[in-house]
Design goal:
Radius of gyration of chain A: 28 Å
Structural class of chain A: mainly alpha
Strand content of chain B: 15-25%
Strand order of the largest sheet of chain B: 5-3-1-6-7-8-9
Largest sheet of chain B: 7 strands, parallel
Order of helices and strands of chain B: EEHEEEEHEHEHEHHEHEHEHEHEHEHHH
Oligomer: heterodimer
Number of strands of chain B: 15
Shape of chain A: elongated
Largest sheet of chain A: none
Order of helices and strands of chain A: HEHHHEH
């Protein structure tokens, strides 16, 4: 899918700034300009601008999905898995209050151990995810080197062009 | 003894509705009223004044505030009470957001929308925001007044220097640009849209960046959380996107706001959205989708986008982060806006509205 950068007129419908102290027209013009420049830059870098602008991956290179999903599950566990006490009441007359207090005590003991266990699991998950992520990064480093080489070539080309431009202006 | 009670499906600690119920009860008790919360389940901290519907003794002289936020059997109780009942609407998320990621919960939301209409005959009602008020008028309510939330900004301010908040600031102060969104991980909050916009920013604008989500995982839609994790993996953002889980002020919430360079909210449904006000409190520039209750919370502050286009959102966020002039202008207006939500002002308003209702409950013989 090709995502055409919005025109300044279209940007006016997309960005709303209600603060009269801010020059909204200027902001919209700068966003429109940045979108055009970014597309040009992405194409030079061999990145799929349309994909990125549509929220898709930048390259079509296969991703080790299974490994990534495993890492995500490990890292995605909440850092604070604390559970609080919620009680539904007893409708038993007289003894209901006592029974509720007893249940609260039992629940609190259970919650203490659940939270402690969840914390231990969280620490383990983080450590495991860190190790697996480091391994995955190492496996990907070859691909990243290629991307960096491309980037260096692109920058060298830009420098050459700028030098030629400056030389032309000096003459 | 004069008695004014509140009905709420569930009284949880530190959520928007729970906080408001407690604030109202505190005011009523300080004013000399007897006040209970009739609810199906409650946090143990509130056990002293919570009562299950089965144990509640109804009476014609009792005034009751019915907090409506989700479909629940307790709504029927509110319809059958002998005394006057005032609905207080906190908004119900449209069921369509959960049809894919939590169909069971979607049923409760459908029920909640239907129950909102069932109470529309009430001669007077309250809404937690202007957006909610307009929704109520749309379904047939006649007279609705806005009773805004008492937002715990004072509690957040007290924890700015707490060890947990300082730890967060130190951890995130590493030269990376931080995008932040605070809110439950839920389908209507559209964390997936934020991830897609961040992906554009991270790949094309600034790779030295991270995205942090603060908020508990919605147990009603575990599939949505799973989809987000898969998306992060597919976009190769592992290591650049962090899910911190639910963070209370005491656990360092203020630290996240302080460390953030921009607060990005692409939520498609909010009754009000308290985190927007919290972000403004900590001078974090806000970029948000113009949807539901969001513009009513922001007023003229912040920057709004009409669509969650990743390219437009990312470029607008980049301007807010990198252009000091625009940032300062945005923050100046946000500082003015946040003054309206100071807890003292909200408490005074609460006292005015609830005080009027309480006085009416003593003098008036009108019944629902």
């Amino acid at each position: 899918m090709t995502r055409t950068p919005p025109s300044p007129a279209e940007i006016a419908d997309l960005i709303e700034i209600r603060d009269p102290a801010i020059d909204a027209t200027d902001v919209r013009a700068r966003v429109a300009d940045a979108l055009i420049r970014r597309r040009a830059w992405a194409e030079r870098e061999g990145l799929s601008y349309d994909a990125l602008a549509s929220g898709q991956p930048a390259t079509s290179a296969p991703s080790p999905d299974a490994l990534r999903a495993a890492i995500e599950r490990l890292q995605g566990a909440p850092a604070h898995p604390m559970t609080s006490l919620l009680l539904t009441p007893s409708t038993t007359p007289l003894l209901g209050g006592l029974f509720r207090r007893f249940r609260a005590l039992v629940h609190n003991v259970a919650i203490f151990y659940v939270n402690r266990s969840a914390n231990t699991q969280h620490v383990f998950n983080q450590a495991a995810a860190g190790s697996i992520y480091a391994l995955a990064r190492a496996a990907e480093s070859a691909g990243e080197l290629d991307a960096l080489k491309k980037r260096v070539s692109s920058l060298e080309r830009e420098i050459r062009e700028l030098r030629q431009q400056i030389a032309g202006e000096v003459k | 003894m004069r008695e004014i009670n509140q009905i709420v499906p569930r009284l949880a600690h530190a959520d928007a509705v729970g906080n408001q119920v407690v604030e109202i009860r505190n005011w009523l008790v300080a004013a000399g009223f007897e006040s209970r919360v009739i609810t199906l389940e409650w946090d143990a901290r509130f056990a002293d004044y919570c009562v299950h519907p089965d144990n509640y003794k109804d009476g014609p002289s009792k005034l009751t505030l019915f907090h409506h936020c989700v479909g629940s059997g307790i709504s029927d109780l509110a319809l059958t009470l002998k005394g006057r009942v005032i609905p207080y609407y906190h908004n119900v998320t449209p069921a369509r957001f959960y049809s894919r990621y939590g169909p069971n919960f979607a049923g409760y939301l459908e029920m909640g929308r239907a129950q909102l209409r069932q109470h529309a005959a009430a001669p007077y009602a309250l809404a937690a925001s202007e957006y909610n008020r307009l929704e109520m008028l749309e379904v047939g309510y006649k007279q609705v007044e806005v009773l805004p939330y008492v937002i715990g900004l004072d509690r957040l301010r007290l924890t700015v220097d707490c060890p947990a908040a300082m730890d967060v600031v130190r951890r995130l102060d590493d030269g990376l640009v931080t995008w932040l969104f605070v809110g439950r991980v839920a389908p209507n909050k559209r964390q997936d849209s934020v991830i897609r916009a961040f992906n554009y920013y991270h790949r094309l604008i600034n790779p030295r960046s991270r995205l942090v989500f603060v908020g508990g995982f919605d147990l009603s839609s575990p599939e949505y959380a799973e989809m987000l994790r898969t998306l992060v993996g597919e976009l190769r953002l592992t290591g650049s996107v962090e899910f911190s889980g639910s963070i209370s002020p005491e656990a360092g919430l203020a630290g996240y706001y302080q460390a953030a360079d921009v607060f990005v909210c692409l939520s498609e449904h909010e009754g009000f959205c308290i985190p927007l006000i919290e972000a403004m409190q900590f001078d974090t520039p806000v970029l948000a989708l113009n949807s539901s209750g969001v513009p009513y919370a922001l007023g003229n502050a912040g920057v709004l986008v009409a669509e969650s286009r990743p390219d437009v959102v990312a470029e607008a966020a980049h301007l807010l982060i990198s252009d000091d002039g625009l940032r300062q202008q945005t923050l100046a207006h946000q500082r003015q806006r946040r003054m309206m939500f100071e807890p003292d002002i909200a408490r005074a308003r609460l006292g005015e509205v609830v005080g009027r209702l309480a006085a009416g409950s003593l003098n008036s013989s009108d019944r629902k």
